Amino acid sequence: FRLEGGYxxxxxxxLNSFQEERNITLIGGKTGTGKTKILNNLLKNNYQxxxxxxxxxxxxxxxxALGMPNQPSNExxxxxxxxxxxxxxxxxxxxxxxxxxNIGSCxxxxxxxxxxxxARRIEIMQSKKNRINELIxxxxxxxxxxxxxxxxxxxxxxxxxxxxxxxxxxxxxxxxDVCNAVLDYY
Length: 186
Fold this sequence. Notes:
By secondary structure, the protein is an alpha/beta fold. The protein has helices at residues 6-17, 35-44, 52-56, 74-86, 110-117, 128-139, 144-153, 155-158, 160-171, 175-183; strands at 24-29, 49-50, 94-97, 102-103, 106-107, 120-124. The model has no long low-confidence stretch (mean pLDDT 94).
């Protein structure tokens, strides 16, 4: 079909849509606390929720691209986000996982991210043991070489000892030790 005013008009609508005030509630918490599972349960129960990581095809960490399809362009990410938001009631809360401004190569639009930063926040807390179990379920299924590459990408932040410990643990498929080595960073 044909867009009235063309794609340029559509992009203007997309960008302007992020200026609209939203009733945002962030779901925050450390890596491995199950925030995405909570969002998915909210979606299944007909709450207004957006899984930004799903829209960006990236989990937002050094390990975020594992098992995910290619990321959309940033422009397409914005288009998808605007389309999701257009059907939501502005008076009802929109649940979104707390994210940094960048999710892989996709960037949350500045005006929308500013609203997220000022939103109410629900903090999810889990024991370290539960977080490790969640991370093992999520990431141990990926090839060891891909996991090693993800560790190497954050090696400057981990330092040489933790990096070596994580890589050795991957080679031995000792997933709890891998998680312990990188969780200080996350």
